[in-house]
Design brief:
2-enoyl-CoA Hydratase, Chain A, domain 1; binds 3-hydroxybutanoyl-coenzyme A; Rossmann fold; 19 strands; 8-stranded mixed sheet; alpha/beta; 3 domains; N-(1-d-carboxylethyl)-l-norvaline Dehydrogenase, domain 2
């Protein structure tokens, strides 16, 4: 069996190489390999110094996250690191790629660190619902002080080589030959006393620092436990000696390792890495140098800005010269804000303004584009007319995409002579900031067209999820389902503000009614009218939203909607409340009260039920894809893992039992998905077999 850790030595210098693809995670085999190498080195008097390096694309990227759900297997990483630090021969870590989590902790146990100039270090454990568990909370403060450690540990932020040098994390930065630089440093230090972070006194500090950090974390990471635990630990151990601090770190780490939040965050970590595994993965994407965008509204300019930020050239089409100029200015406005936020260099902005962004009123200017994204008004006839034009001017191999959020992509593709090259690319607003992208695949789309959509997503730094064609694809279809449930709740007795408060208690950034007021109530109204002819007459239909719109109360922009904005601070709108009360009376509903938990239970079950239907119909490839969409596009708290993960945690039989209980009151809405039923049945059979 090949070992993931190898040891070679020449001229008194040993080189340990970890080779555990893809990211050199410290699995049990790596820990054992390191411990064995240390034993050999300690016993070999001819070895005077050691370089610890990694093969492949990166230094150790952390503990092996796949081992977290299992019982810990010795040797423990913290003991292996203690063994390295205790050596009486200097050890230099040679860091390329990303030294993260346990990987960075390993480097902190070495006596010196050399980083390649393109390398990063960080302790991202809090983003996985845990804290550093191999000495990171004790060694880092002793190296760079408490303030900088609080910043790195509670945010999980990565630090580049230049900043690491400034902070004192790196002893040297290698411009080219990393191993050469590590060897040079080792030779300089070979006879020097060995510096060990564990020998240093605690980096004690004033308590005010922690109070201020606590406030910041409370707003930044609302509801999430691990950043607060990390801060508490740093505060508690700020005056402790190293051994005591390590013991506390181990206790807190063990308590969090398999907590609900850690399981949820691990789930979403792996789900985000699975989304690229699509049936079209082996197809060759069309190289996209130039992107065309039709429609210079909020969405079109956001998409254009996203592509320009990624270094692409963009042609933006509007209906006339004046609109084209306006669209160009709006896109440049977004990019100017990116310059101010430090996301875009001024020189790049100047290049974009000078030529990389071309705005025009002529479709003929799209003749050279490899991919064109239509982002016009959400109306099938409008979009079909645009696609007829695009089909005429675009080169035959170009892929045409629509940014529709609800319409049938197949029906749009059908008006072209190239339906196999038409896909949906559903961006989320603001498109240059939001990470989610749904790649919508109509039945006739060829694998190369789908692969091109995914390649664009990668290039733009998006989280691209494959979706089939249906009303609303994955995200908006689930949104429609829980919005409907929220409407039922207000008709049954909950106030809109109570429903919104339940959303926020759950960890969503905004309530469903506040959100609709903000987006404008006319959007949903138009959509409901468009869907009306296809609506099942047996379906329970709540008219409250329509009645509010009929009064011209279209939400925040009109000063009124579910809330009244006239006083500056939104308050429940009297007229909306009166409409709700009148509708209850008209339908003979006896109003009842709901607790926050009852509200979210119904909302969550609506999400899960619709998610299961989406899986059932093959609209989403995996339940994890649905979670990725909800977390990255709809504000579902990441630390809850997404609705489908929550269903798994609840147990599918329990989910089905609760849905069936609700179905007794409302058979239409709660028709449980066949898939959910099958899964629960299978589980029951399995349990019966014992
Ligand atoms: N454990 C197990 N598998 C891991 C892993 C880890 N720590 N990090 C990445 N992987 C896997 C991914 O699942 C993926 O697998 P797949 O190919 O089968 O889908 C593969 O490695 C490649 O990962 P990416 O697609 O993410 O590759 P990128 O090049 O885009 O990114 C990375 C590389 C920056 C290292 C990124 O993977 C990452 O951020 N990894 C997690 C780092 C991390 O959180 N480390 C801390 C772990 S907790 C810890 O160390 C506890 C300690 O304190 C005791």
């Amino acid at each position: 069996m090949t070992t993931p850790v190898s040891l070679s030595h020449a001229d008194g210098i040993a080189v340990i190489t970890i080779d555990n693809p893809p990211v050199n995670a410290v699995s049990q085999a790596v820990r054992q390999g390191l411990a064995d190498s240390m034993a050999k080195i300690a016993a070999d008097a001819s070895i005077r110094g050691i370089i610890l390096s990694c093969a492949g694309r990166t230094f150790v990227a952390g503990a092996d996250i796949r081992e977290f759900g299992k019982p810990p297997a010795p040797p423990m990483l913290r003991d292996v690191i203690a063994g390295i630090e205790a050596l009486d021969k200097p050890v230099v870590a040679a860091i390329h790629g990303t030294a993260l989590g346990g990987g960075f902790e390993l480097a902190l146990g070495c006596h010196y660190r050399v980083m390649h100039r393109s390398a990063f270090v960080g302790l991202p454990e809090v983003t996985l619902g845990i804290i550093p568990g191999a000495g990171g909370t004790q060694r880092l403060p002793r190296l760079i002080g408490i303030q900088a450690s609080i910043d790195m540990i509670t945010s999980g932020r990565r630090v580049d080589a230049a900043e690491a040098l400034k902070l004192g994390i790196a002893d040297a930065v290698a411009e080219g030959d990393l191993l050469g630089s590590a060897r040079k440093l080792l030779m300089e230090k070979i006879a020097a006393p060995i510096p060990r972070l564990s020998d240093r006194p605690p980096a004690a500090t004033a308590p005010e620092i922690f109070a201020k950090a606590r406030q910041q974390i409370a707003t930044r990471a609302r509801g999430q436990i691990s950043p607060v635990s990390a801060l508490d630990l740093l505060a508690e151990t700020a005056h402790m000696d190293f051994a005591q601090g390590m013991a506390r770190e181990a206790e807190i780490f063990a308590g969090l390792r398999n907590s609900g939040q850690a399981r949820a965050l691990r789930h979403i970590f792996f789900a985000e890495r699975e989304i690229g595994k699509i049936p079209e993965a082996d197809a060759r994407p069309l190289p996209v140098a130039g992107l065309g965008v039709v429609g210079g509204g909020l969405m079109g300019t956001g998409i254009a800005a996203s592509a320009l930020l990624a270094g692409m050239n963009v042609t933006l089409i509007e209906r006339d010269a004046a609109s084209a100029e306006g669209a160009r200015n709006r896109a440049l406005g977004l990019l100017k804000a990116s310059v101010e936020r430090g996301k875009l260099a001024q020189a790049d902005y100047d290049a974009i303004a000078a030529g990389r962004l071309h705005a025009s009123a002529s479709y003929a200017d799209l003749a050279e584009a490899d991919l064109v994204i239509e982002a016009a008004f959400e109306d099938l006839a409008v979009k079909q007319a645009i696609f007829r034009e695009l089909d005429k001017v675009a080169k035959p191999e170009a892929v045409l995409a629509t940014n529709t959020s609800y319409l049938d992509v197949g029906a749009i593709a059908a008006v072209t002579a190239r339906p196999e090259r038409v896909i949906g690319l559903h961006f989320f607003s603001p498109a240059h900031i939001m990470k989610l992208l749904e790649v919508v695949v109509p039945p006739k789309a060829r694998p190369e067209a789908v692969a091109t959509g995914f390649a664009l997503g990668r290039r733009l730094g998006k989280i691209a999820v494959r979706a089939g064609v249906c009303d609303g694809f994955i995200g908006n279809r689930i949104l429609s389902a829980y919005r409907k449930q929220a409407d039922y709740l207000i008709e049954d007795g909950a106030a809109p503000a109570e429903v919104d408060a339940a959303f926020k208690n759950f960890g969503l950034p905004m309530g469903v009614f506040e959100m609709q007021d903000m987006a404008g109530l006319d959007i949903g109204w138009a959509n409901r009218r468009a869907l009306a002819p296809r609506r099942d007459p047996r379906e329970r239909y709540v008219e409250i939203g329509d009645l509010i719109c009929e009064r011209g109360h279209l939400g925040r922009k009109a000063g009124r909607g579910y809330y009244n904005y006239s006083g500056g601070v939104p308050v429940p709108d009297d007229e909306a409340l009166a409409i709700i009360a009148a509708e209850r009376t008209r339908k003979g509903i006896v109003s009842r009260s709901f607790t926050s938990d009852e509200i979210m239970d119904r909302i969550l079950l609506a999400m899960i039920n619709e998610g299961a239907r989406i899986l059932d119909e093959g609209i989403a490839l995996r339940s994890g894809d649905i979670d990725v969409v909800m977390v990255n596009g709809y504000g579902f708290p990441r630390w809850r893992g997404g609705p489908m993960h929550m269903a798994d945690e609840m147990g599918l039989a329990e989910v089905l039992r609760r849905i069936e209980a609700l179905a007794r009151d409302d058979t239409w809405f709660w028709k449980p998905s066949g898939l959910l039923k099958q899964l629960a049945d299978a589980k029951r059979r399995f349990a019966d077999k014992g």
